[in-house]
Predict the 3D structure of the following.
Amino acid sequence: MKHPQTRDLPKLQSKWPTALATLAVAGACWAMFITYATNQEKISSSVFRSIMRSLKADPQLRDLLGDAIRPQPEWWLNGDPRIEGKIGQLQGNIDVSFRVKGSKGTGTVYFTSIRKEKGVPFTVLRFKVICDDGTVVHISDTLPIEH
């Protein structure tokens, strides 16, 4: 009886490309989730609500942007605005920026506030809106900002 001819075994394909691709996709999904979750936390904060209340009450901003001033939604955040920066009330620093729009125009809000020591009220360092046409509106310090 004759044995079949010996032949080489097929070469195994490397699993590294598949593993790296899976790792890259998982890392991107994790980063998107963290971005979305921290953005939601900022949106639901009392600081953000107070900032929006002050923006809607400012007469000069209403003249420039129009009525119905609201955060500008982003499609990739499922219609929520993108809040950049940090809200660290316990650490005593708040520094955020985000886009707003009204019936006449749009702009970017910049808000910075610090607390020098525990138990002392926050001090607003910067609270302005730069409209897309270049106009800068300093939001009135007389409006109450609650932290």
Notes: The radius of gyration is 26 Å. The first strand starts at residue 70 and ends at 71. The mean pLDDT is 89. Residues 103 and 116 are 38 Å apart (CA to CA).
